[in-house]
Amino acid sequence: MLDFELRRPTSLEDALAMLDTDDPSVRPWSGGTALMLMMKSGVFEPSVLVDLTGVEEEHASIRRLEDGGTSIGALATLASLQFDPHLASEAPVLGQALPRLANVRVRNVARVGGCLAHGDPHMDLPPILACLRGLVVARKADGERRIAVEQLFAGYYETVLDPGEIITAVELPTQTGWDSVYRKTTVRTHHDWPTVGVAISLRREAGLIVESRVIVSAATEKLTRLEAVENLLAGQPSNAALFTRAGRTAAELVETIDDAQGSASYKRVLVGVEVRRALSQILEEGSGS
Amino acid sequence: MSVETMNRNEGKNQPEVGRDVPRLESRRKVTGRADYVHNLSVPGMLHAKVFRSTVPHGRILSIDTSEALDAPGVHYVLTGEDIRAMFPHPYYGPAFHDQPVLALDKVRYVGEPVAVVLAEDPFAAADAVQMIVADYEELEPVYDEVEAVTSPVVVHDVLKPAGTFPDLKHLHGKRDTNVALDYQLRRGDCDAAFSAAAHVFEHEFRSQPVMHVPLEPMVSLAVPDHDRLTIHTASQSPSFVRMEIARLLGWPENRVRVMVPHLGGGFGAKLYIKLEALVACAALIARAPVKLSLTMEEQFYTITKHASTFRIKTGVDADGRITARRCEVYWNGGAYADIGPRVTQKSGFTAPGPYDIENVSIDSYALYTNRPPAGALRGFGIPQLVWAYESQADIIARELGQDPVEFRRRNLLRNGRPQATGTIMESAAIHEVLETVVERLEWAKPFDRGSGPVRRGRAIAIGFKASIAPTTSVAIVTVAADGSASLSISTVDMGQGSDTAMAQIVAETLGIPTEEVTVVHPDTDTTPYDMATLGSRSTFHTGNAVKRAAEDARERLARLAEEAGMPAQDSYAPAEVFRKRYGMQAGTVTGTGSYIPEYRSPDEDGQSPKVTPYWMIGATGVELEVDTETGHVHVTRMVNAVDCGTPLNPKIVEAQISGAAIMQFGFTMSEEMHFDAGQVTNASFADYKIPGIHDIPPLMDEYIVDAVQSGGPFGAKGVGESATFGVSPSIAGAIEDAVGVRLTELPLTPEKVLRAIRAAAGDPLED
Question: Model-level pTM?
Answer without folding.
Answer: 0.96
